[in-house]
Amino acid sequence: MQNIKWIFYKELKIFFNSFMAPLVLGGTAFLNSLIIMIWNFSDRASYQVTMGATYLSFMTSIIVAMLILSMGSIVEEKNKGTMELLFSAPITDSDIVLGKYLFGVTISFIISFIINAFFPFTLYYFWKIPFSIVASSTIGVFLLGCFTYSIGLFGSSLGKNQMISLLISVIIIMTLWVLGFFSHLFQAKTRAVLYHLHIYSHFVNFSRGVVPLSGVVFFLSGILAFLYFTISSLQSMRWRG
Q1: Contact 98, 136 (CB under 8 A)
Q2: 143 Rama sector, left if φ>0, alpha if ψ -120 to 50, beta otherwise
Q3: Which domain holds residue 218?
Q4: Which one, 37, 153, 192, 198, has the greatest CB density within 10 A?
Q5: Domain count within the chain
């Protein structure tokens, strides 16, 4: 546990002492506020349209932010030679992955519950949307951010540089994104499996004022799966020397 905390604090220190903190946090706040203000002050906007635009903005920004954060998380350790130091230290591969992932969860929490907290109040002021929708949608954004970061960590463990890591992560995200749209082309059993792997279908359920069990299970199981894949990738890297 001490090793996980050490890696977690190291990631936080690097993040807040670099340009990434204002870029990711400030950029997320700016883009969300711009989109939401446009819709809230539009005469053509309705309650449903404004709410949909708000959480579509949240969904897009959390995915982009988590991919940017995670794309260099492991690959930069390899390129700078610090991965060899971690491998030679009394630290397990699980400690490395969990410490880095805990950092991603923290940033996802900051974006979902702190930076984005202002915007639901704006929606409530203009449209009086139910608090249940605000709460469930915020939880959905947080889980989506954690899920995306786990994919980004896996991509970073496979890539030789940040761009390749980002490309791998984007391909995985896009594959899970479009599966549901083509599920109707297959037979019933295959259709059910593909639709269950559809990220958007799970996320959109959170915007209806409930926390769906299927969505929570999907995101949590996906997180565990990609963390396991990342740990296995590091173990393979360690054995290859």
Answers
A1: no
A2: alpha
A3: 2-240
A4: 153
A5: 1
